[in-house]
Amino acid sequence: LELGVPVNGIAESVFARALSSHDDLRAAAANLAGPDRVLQVPDKEAFIEDVRQALWASKVVAYSQGFDEIRTGGVEFGWNINVADCAKIWRDGCIIRAKLLENIRQEYSADADLVSLMAAPSIAPKLAEYNDAWRRVVAAAVQAGVSAPVFASSLAYYDMARAPRNNAAVTQGLRDYFGSHTYERVDAPGHYHLDWSGDRSESKTSDD
User: CATH topology for 168-206?
Assistant: First the structure.
């Protein structure tokens, strides 16, 4: 949070573990309304393949978020971190040792300034290929009442990252409504305030 790097997929995995350990809370919520947590799977083999693809896509998001945080921390604290070397170290000696790390190492070696692993040449096409399966798995889990926090939050991160405009614009409007914090427009420079409780007239508060 201090670095301002969104790592919601990683955070959700930690939160899920924490919630799992709260026996009293889960006992109190056991009879709350919702689906019966039984997945209806017409084609078991096809669904297993969907889950495999959703897992791969979610892992890519986790790595993307993690490497973003490492790189941002390196810049913030002057650590001079080579992201490709991090992937190599993990591949050679860490408990992770995922084959995907070699692919990641190659991508960061080819482009040390890679903004997002999700957009890497060898990653983006596979994310596109696995997109439908990823969405099917998340949708099936939600409809069945099965918690899939990392799959769902990773997909939300992916969709938010690729969106040309996000809900922060709505948040700006809400902040102006309750606290006159002003907002920016997409069609004109400057900061603006709306008279929400009056005649709804708009006034420009600054040019920057």
Answer: 1.20.5
